[in-house]
Write a structure and sequence with these properties.
With 89 residues, the chain is mainly alpha-helical. The protein has one domain. Helix 1 crosses helix 3, helix 2 runs parallel beside helix 3 and helix 2 packs across helix 4. The N and C termini lie far apart (29 Å).
Length: 89
């Protein structure tokens, strides 16, 4: 799965059910991955709250952070959509 596909699927999952454990955990991960200098402090036990498909997206997001970083225009656009979905705006 490409980085673009991972982001698109993560956004779709969050927008489909923004109050679900899958969505909230993905959203938390996306926010955490923006703070590399802080050590990406994401509690990995939260992955147990996710189903297999959501965990695959989480792993894809982590790989994206390691391979090419985060914060580019596509990342910011995806994050903004997740922000709106989770906040109900």
């Amino acid at each position: 799965m490409t980085a673009t596909e991972v982001l698109a699927r993560a956004v779709a999952m969050v927008e489909a059910a923004p109050e679900s454990a899958n969505a909230l955990t993905l959203y938390a991960l996306v926010n955490t991955l923006e703070y590399e200098r802080a050590g990406w402090l994401f509690k990995l036990t939260k992955l147990k709250d996710m189903d297999t498909a959501a965990r695959a997206l989480a792993y894809g997001l982590m790989e994206q952070a390691v391979a090419r970083g985060v914060g580019d225009a596509a990342w910011q656009k995806a994050k903004a959509r997740m922000d709106r979905a989770v906040r109900g705006v």
